């Protein structure tokens, strides 16, 4: 791959913060001359941090789905909603398009994150050359759509603030929504900790 | 200390491939030949245009936060809320984690982002670096994905549809302000703020 030289081969480092091209002087405490950020060839402890955050996020995702996220109470009944029952409700009440959007944001996107980040971590740790372009694209997709998972958290928050009719009708948040919010934050941190350059290391480079 | 290398080099953030920088024509996006990520795009917005967008966004943001977002009606009773009404209610309802998440991703981070940008662009207009330029640019970079106003707009839409089955729903001005804010954020999404480094002189103002 000599036609496409990589930074390490030319003794260069790109600043992760401001993007400046810097010379790699070899030390462990190099700083970017433009923005002062520490210069790293790769994000520090990328594998360990990404794995830890991903696993923590997955552990919290279980109660987020099992526990109800919201209680709706009216004069004659009390109803506890989970993420899935909320999607089903939208579907049967005649908004299948929104049901699909909420399902995507709350279920598909987090699952895609857990799966694709795990695959990215395992393959990169092995230095695998398999489907590198596709893996790089999946990573960018995950980075781009990840924060949309916060959708359901905001729905519950807004409904809680709106439905305040005393005994007639009340909405309360339940613990599931807290677990879900934390899952989103942890998976966002996990994908930020992963360094996509690692996909291209191994085999042809000895970084 | 790392030393700066020639300005003419560009390194792909996603795979570390090194490229010779070349001028882009209007609307052009340079892509990495190895990983297909975007390297650099032609910046169509002038600093003045960006400043105008940020100032507009600030006005809209103030309105989006002051005005009620939605009002529900049930048997002649009405109940509405603003963003801060929502944040406070969540705190009182034992969901402090959600309350804090909403306060930061929907209020504090967007506010800091806009104020910082306004400040940097105000000086950038004259090709100067604002006081505090370097730490503020680093802060802007770190804030990156932690502003979620556009997610909130979609969430409000879902909440309206859900409430519609049980209540009379009145969309208040705040929701329109939020929609306008989302539009401004979308326009701004294509702007690479790192150009401010190149744009401004080395000496602080
Ligand atoms: Zn830098
Ligand atoms: Zn690349």
Describe this structure in words.
The complex is a heterodimer of chains A (207) and B (205). Chain A is α+β, with helices and mostly antiparallel strands. Chain A folds into two domains: 1-41; 44-200, Butyryl-CoA Dehydrogenase, subunit A, domain 3 (Up-down Bundle), CATH 1.20.140. Chain A is 51% helix and 11% strand. Chain A has helices at 46-66, 83-92, 96-125, 132-145, 151-162, 175-193; strands at residues 12-14, 21-23, 70-74, 78-81, 164-165, 169-173. In chain A, the strands form two sheets. In chain A, strands 4-3-6-5 form a four-stranded antiparallel β-sheet. In chain A, strands 1-2 form a two-stranded antiparallel ribbon. In chain A, β1 (12-14) and β2 (21-23) form a beta hairpin. In chain A, α1 (46-66) runs antiparallel to α3 (96-125). The longest helix of chain A is centred in the middle third of the chain and has 30 residues, at 96-125. Chain A starts with 11 loop residues before the first strand and ends in a 14-residue tail after the last helix. The model of chain A has no long low-confidence stretch (mean pLDDT 92). With 205 residues, chain B is α+β, with helices and mostly antiparallel strands. Chain B folds into two domains: 1-42, no CATH class; 46-199, no CATH class. Chain B is built from seven helices and eight strands, in the order βββββαββααααβαα. In chain B, α1 (47-66) runs antiparallel to α6 (173-189) and α2 runs antiparallel to α3 (96-124). The model of chain B has no long low-confidence stretch (mean pLDDT 91). Bound molecules: zinc ion (2 copies). Residues 12, 14-15, 17, 32, 34-35, 37 of chain B line the site of one zinc ion (ZN).
């Amino acid at each position: 791959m000599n036609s496409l030289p990589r930074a390490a081969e030319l003794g260069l480092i790109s600043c992760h913060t401001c993007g400046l091209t810097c010379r790699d002087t070899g030390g462990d405490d190099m700083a970017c001359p433009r923005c002062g950020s520490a210069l790293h060839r790769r994000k520090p402890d990328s594998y360990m941090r990404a794995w830890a955050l991903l696993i923590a996020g997955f552990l919290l995702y279980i109660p987020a789905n099992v526990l109800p996220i919201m209680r709706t109470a009216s004069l004659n009944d009390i109803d506890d909603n989970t993420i899935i029952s909320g999607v089903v409700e939208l579907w049967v009440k005649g908004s299948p398009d929104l049901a699909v959007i909420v399902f995507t944001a709350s279920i598909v996107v987090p699952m895609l994150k857990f799966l694709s980040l795990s695959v990215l971590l395992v393959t990169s740790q092995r230095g695998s050359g398999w489907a590198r372009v596709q893996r790089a694209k999946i990573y960018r997709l995950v980075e781009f759509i990840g924060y949309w998972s916060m959708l359901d958290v905001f729905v519950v928050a807004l409904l809680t603030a709106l439905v305040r009719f005393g005994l007639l009708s009340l909405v309360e948040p339940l613990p599931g929504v807290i677990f879900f919010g934390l899952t989103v934050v942890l998976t966002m941190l996990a994908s930020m900790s992963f360094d996509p350059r690692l996909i291209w290391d191994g085999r042809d480079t000895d970084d | 200390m790392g030393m700066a290398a020639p300005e003419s080099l560009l390194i792909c953030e996603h795979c570390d491939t090194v490229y010779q920088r070349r001028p882009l024509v209007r609307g052009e996006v340079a892509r990495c030949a190895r990983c297909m990520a975007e390297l650099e795009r032609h910046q169509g917005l002038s600093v003045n245009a960006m400043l105008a967008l940020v100032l507009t966004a600030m006005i809209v943001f103030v309105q989006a936060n002051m005005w009620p977002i939605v009002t529900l009606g049930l048997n002649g009773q009405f109940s509405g809320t603003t963003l801060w009404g929502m944040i406070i209610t969540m705190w009182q309802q034992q969901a402090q984690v959600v309350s804090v998440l909403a306060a930061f991703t929907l209020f504090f981070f967007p506010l800091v982002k806009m104020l910082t940008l306004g400040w940097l662009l105000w000086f950038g207009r004259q090709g100067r670096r604002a006081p505090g330029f370097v730490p503020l640019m680093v802060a802007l970079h770190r804030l990156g994905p932690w502003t979620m106003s556009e997610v909130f707009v979609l969430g409000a839409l879902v909440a309206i549809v859900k409430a519609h089955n049980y209540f009379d729903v009145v969309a208040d001005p705040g929701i329109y302000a939020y929609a306008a804010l989302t539009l401004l954020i979308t326009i701004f999404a294509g702007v690479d703020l790192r150009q401010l480094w190149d744009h401004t002189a080395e000496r602080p103002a």
